[in-house]
Specification:
Shape: elongated
Structural class: alpha+beta
Number of helices: 4
Radius of gyration: 18 Å
Strand content: 25-35%
Largest sheet: 4 strands, antiparallel
Order of helices and strands: EHHEEHEH
Helix content: 40-55%
């Protein structure tokens, strides 16, 4: 199954709710992902631009989009982004394909 990185910022209301009542958001996210046929590999709070990063394995892009839509529609996030990930083996297969196709590309010239 494909792997995805979901990054998001919590809304002000969600942060207030977590401060008022600390809660394990991995416990909140896991049932959604599993209900859609996926697997949550980890959910991490982080410093920087985003508040949370989740590593998710899902059957396909449509499933991952459905997951992101549910989270977005909940109002608990002020922004979010999903990045599809590749294993090193998948990346090497892409490199092999690029190697074979390289001669068919004509680059821009000045």
């Amino acid at each position: 199954m494909p792997h995805y990185m979901f990054q998001a910022r919590y809304s002000t209301d969600a942060i207030k709710a977590m401060v008022d009542k600390p809660q394990d958001r991995e416990v909140g996210a896991r049932p959604l992902i599993e209900a859609l046929g996926g697997k949550l590999h980890g959910l991490y709070f982080c410093f920087g631009k985003e508040d949370v990063v989740a590593l998710i394995e899902a059957p396909d892009d449509k499933t991952m989009a459905a997951c992101a839509l549910v989270v977005g529609a909940s109002g608990s996030m002020s922004s979010g982004a999903t990045t599809k990930l590749m294993t090193a083996k998948e990346a090497m297969a892409a490199m092999e394909a690029a190697k074979k196709a390289r001669g068919s590309y004509t680059p821009a010239t000045g």
